[in-house]
């Protein structure tokens, strides 16, 4: 039976729930999610089909507060400084190559209506688009999004996808994958779909630290399986950790990094395909 991850109703923090050992405490590090395969790309329809104008208005207000909280924070200043630093901006330049914009694809944002962390994560992505003209359109998918949340996302200029791609989008053009605190299988799917240097070099990935996954590798075969490709990608990845700066932003951004992948010849990539990873 698979481990599941649930929100604690009291504080909205992610908690890892393992079937045999009962509830675990507050999640502070990205624990590799061990999830049964459900990997088919398929059309997706929200369970919650009605747009509720009152909830919509409340959520618009919450998003306004969240964007303001980020924009006026030291955390955001540090986030922007990192993006503008020579090391990181050079990585984005390499991903862009001859293109002028990076499409942004956001997977696993979570419920922006119910929790602050997803709102802060969405806010920073939108602010990033406003700050940098090289950030292009934002596409969003998370199976938990309600019709009301989708309408607010659209009003903020995002496109909500109607297909669950299982994070298997091929980077046929330069793409910024914004995947805050996703489960390991989604990063793994993304890597698998792009396991060639010409595609990997078109990816900028914001997500759980790959270094952290490598450090947390255990002997549990399910965890090894879920993180194998992530750990293999470490060898060709440049990683830049996000500094959370203050406790206010810890829950939303802890253990997150920017990841970029170097160019090379495909024969140098670890051969994982035949092993079904
Ligand atoms: C651990 S939660 C993180 C939520 C939020 N980003 C946060 O930090 O609180 C992982 C999220 O991934 C979403 N997810 C699961 N499968 C997905 C898929 N195929 N595509 C996009 N998102 C997915 C889940 O619904 C969940 O909201």
| Count of runs of 4 or more consecutive helical residues | 10
Strand order of the largest sheet: 7-6-5-9-10-12-11
Overall geometry comes to globular
Helix share of residues? 25-40%
CATH class: Alpha Beta
Average residue-wise pLDDT = 85
Kindly state the number of beta strands. Answer: 12
What oligomerization state is this entry in? single chain
Cα distance spanning the termini: 19 Å
Q: How do the helices and strands follow one another from N- to C-terminus? A: EEEEHHHEHEHEEEHHEHHEHE
The largest β sheet comes out as:
7 strands, mixed
CATH topology: Rossmann fold
Structural commentary:
With 277 residues, the chain is of the alpha/beta class. It has a single domain, classed as 3-Layer(aba) Sandwich (Rossmann fold). It is built from 10 helices and 12 strands. The chain has a 7-stranded mixed sheet, with helices on both faces. Helix 1 (53-71) crosses helix 4 (116-131), helix 1 packs across helix 5 (147-155) and helix 6 (184-193) crosses helix 9 (221-233). The longest helix is centred in the first third of the chain and has 19 residues, at 53-71. The protein is globular. The structure holds S-adenosylmethionine. S-adenosylmethionine binds at residues 5, 14, 107-110, 115, 117-118, 121, 141-144, 164, 166-167, 180-183, 186. Residues 91-260 form the SRR1-like domain. Residues 21-32 have a biased composition (Basic residues). It comes from Microthlaspi erraticum. InterPro entries: SRR1-like, SRR1L.
């Amino acid at each position: 039976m698979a481990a599941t991850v649930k929100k604690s109703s009291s504080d909205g923090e992610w908690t890892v729930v393992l079937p045999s050992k009962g509830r675990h405490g507050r999640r502070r590090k990205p624990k590799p999610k061990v999830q049964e395969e459900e990997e088919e790309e398929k059309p997706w329809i929200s369970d919650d089909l009605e747009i509720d104008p009152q909830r919509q208005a409340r959520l618009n207000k919450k998003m306004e507060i969240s964007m303001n909280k980020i924009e006026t924070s030291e955390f955001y200043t540090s986030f922007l400084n990192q993006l503008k630093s020579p090391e990181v901006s050079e990585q984005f330049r390499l991903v862009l190559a001859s293109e002028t914009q990076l499409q942004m694809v956001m997977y696993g944002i979570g419920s922006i209506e119910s929790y602050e962390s997803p709102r802060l994560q969405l806010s920073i992505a939108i602010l990033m688009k406003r700050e940098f003209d090289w950030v292009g359109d934002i596409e969003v998918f998370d199976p938990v999004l309600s019709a009301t949340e989708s309408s607010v996302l659209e009003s903020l200029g995002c496109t909500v996808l109607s297909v669950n791609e299982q994070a298997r989008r091929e980077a046929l053009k330069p793409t910024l994958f914004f995947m805050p605190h996703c489960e390991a299988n989604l990063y793994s799917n993304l890597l698998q779909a792009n396991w060639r240097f010409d595609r990997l070099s078109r990816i900028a990935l914001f997500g759980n630290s790959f270094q952290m996954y490598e450090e947390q590798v255990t002997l549990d075969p399910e965890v090894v399986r879920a993180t194998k490709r992530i750990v293999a990608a470490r060898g060709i990845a440049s990683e830049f950790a996000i500094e959370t700066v203050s406790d206010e932003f810890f829950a939303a951004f802890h253990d997150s990094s920017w990841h970029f992948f170097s160019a090379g010849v495909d024969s140098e990539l670890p051969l994982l395909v035949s092993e079904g990873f």
